[in-house]
C-alpha cells in the first residue's frame, strides 16, 4: 500500500479506507469528457499537481496559515456584468486602488487561499485547469507552456472560475474558450480583463491620441498581451474598430515579458529557478515547505518528497533560495 501511495502520489489511507476523500473521481470525470486532450505525460503532470495542492494544504493547516478569503454573490443573469463586478470587488478586497497596476499577481492570489501551480503541458490548446478539491479546496493549474503574459491572463481567468463556478468542481479552459458564446467562459474572460486592466487606470491616463507605442507601453505595464488589452479598450470605447484592427498586428518580443516570480533573479540562477517553476515549484511553495521543515512538521525526507525530488537534490534546490537544512550542528 505504501508503494502504491508513493507511486500514485496519494495518501495511503485512500487505498485502505473509503473514508479518505480524493480528487480521483473528479479527474476521472475530466478524462471521460476530455480524455483525448491529455497525453500520458499530461495526466501524470495533473496527478503531481494534485499532490502539490494536497501537500500545500497540509502545510497551511499545520502552520495555521490564515488566507485572505474572498467571496462574491452574483445578482441578475447578465454574465458579463458578473465578471466585471466580481473583478472590481476582488481588487477592492485586495486593497488595490481603482488605478493600481498589479505587481505580483501570483503572490496576491495565493494569499486568497487558492493553490496555484504552473506546470508545462504538452497540449498547447489547454490554458488552465480549476479543481475544487475535496480536501485541499480551490486549486488552479496554469500551462507553463504559454508565454508569460498569456499565463497572467490564464491565472486571472481561472480565478474567475474559482469565484463563480466552484460548484462545478472542475473546469478545463482551452485557448479559444469564449469564442463559441459559452457564457461561463465569457464571464471568466470578462473577469480576467477587468481584474488585470481596470478601466479607471486607463481613464486616468487621459490619452487623446492612441498610437502603437502607447498601446505597447500599456500592455507592458499591465503585463498582458496586445489582444486582451485591445478588447478592453474597445469595449470601454477608448478605441474604435479600425484602431483595433490596426493595433492587433503589434507583437511584444518575449524578452520584454518579465515573469513576476523570477523578477529578482538573473543569469544562471534565473534559468535554474525557471526550470523549477516548470515543475510547479514556486518560491512561495518552497518557502512554505521550508517553514514546515524548520518547525518540525515535516522531515527532511518528506520535504524532498513535497518538492518532487530526493534527499540528494534537495540541498541544491534550497541553495537557490538561500535556504539550508538543519543538520544539528
UniProtKB/TrEMBL annotation:
Pfam families: Peptidase_M78. Gene3D superfamilies: 1.10.10.2910. GO terms for molecular function: DNA binding. InterPro entries: IrrE_HExxH, Rad_response_metalloprotease. The keyword DNA-binding applies. Keywords: DNA-binding. It comes from the Bacteria. Residues 111-219 form the IrrE N-terminal-like domain. This is DNA-binding protein. It comes from Flavipsychrobacter stenotrophus.
Amino acid at each position: 500500500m505504501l508503494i502504491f501511495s508513493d507511486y500514485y502520489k496519494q495518501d495511503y489511507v485512500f487505498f485502505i479506507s473509503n473514508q479518505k476523500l480524493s480528487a480521483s473521481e473528479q479527474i476521472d470525470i475530466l478524462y471521460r469528457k476530455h480524455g483525448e486532450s491529455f497525453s500520458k505525460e499530461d495526466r501524470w503532470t495533473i496527478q503531481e499537481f494534485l499532490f502539490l495542492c494536497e501537500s500545500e494544504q497540509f502545510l497551511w493547516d499545520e502552520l495555521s496559515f490564515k488566507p485572505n478569503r474572498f467571496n462574491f454573490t452574483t445578482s441578475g443573469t447578465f454574465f458579463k456584468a458578473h465578471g466585471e463586478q466580481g473583478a472590481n470587488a476582488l481588487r477592492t478586497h485586495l486593497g488595490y486602488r481603482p488605478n493600481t497596476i498589479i505587481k505580483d499577481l501570483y503572490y496576491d492570489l495565493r494569499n486568497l487561499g487558492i493553490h496555484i501551480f504552473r506546470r508545462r503541458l504538452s497540449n498547447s490548446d489547454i490554458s488552465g485547469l480549476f479543481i475544487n478539491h475535496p480536501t485541499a479546496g480551490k486549486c488552479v493549474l496554469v500551462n507553463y507552456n504559454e508565454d508569460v503574459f498569456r499565463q497572467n491572463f490564464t491565472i486571472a481567468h481561472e480565478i474567475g472560475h474559482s469565484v463563480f463556478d466552484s460548484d462545478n468542481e472542475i473546469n478545463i479552459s482551452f485557448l479559444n474558450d469564449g469564442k463559441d458564446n459559452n457564457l461561463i467562459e465569457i464571464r471568466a474572460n470578462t473577469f480576467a480583463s477587468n481584474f488585470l486592466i481596470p478601466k479607471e487606470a486607463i481613464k486616468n491616463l487621459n490619452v487623446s491620441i492612441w498610437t502603437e507605442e502607447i498601446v505597447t507601453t500599456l500592455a507592458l505595464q499591465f503585463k498582458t498581451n496586445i489582444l486582451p488589452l485591445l478588447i478592453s479598450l474597445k469595449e470601454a470605447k477608448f478605441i474604435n474598430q479600425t484602431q483595433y484592427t490596426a493595433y492587433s498586428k503589434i507583437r511584444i518580443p518575449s524578452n520584454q515579458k518579465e515573469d513576476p516570480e523570477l523578477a529578482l533573479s538573473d543569469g544562471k540562477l534565473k534559468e535554474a529557478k525557471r526550470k523549477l517553476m516548470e515543475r510547479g515549484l514556486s518560491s512561495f511553495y518552497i518557502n512554505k515547505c521550508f517553514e514546515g521543515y524548520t518547525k518540525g512538521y515535516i522531515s527532511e525526507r518528506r520535504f524532498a518528497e513535497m518538492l518532487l525530488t530526493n534527499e540528494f537534490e534537495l540541498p541544491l534546490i534550497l541553495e537557490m533560495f538561500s535556504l539550508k537544512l538543519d543538520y544539528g550542528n
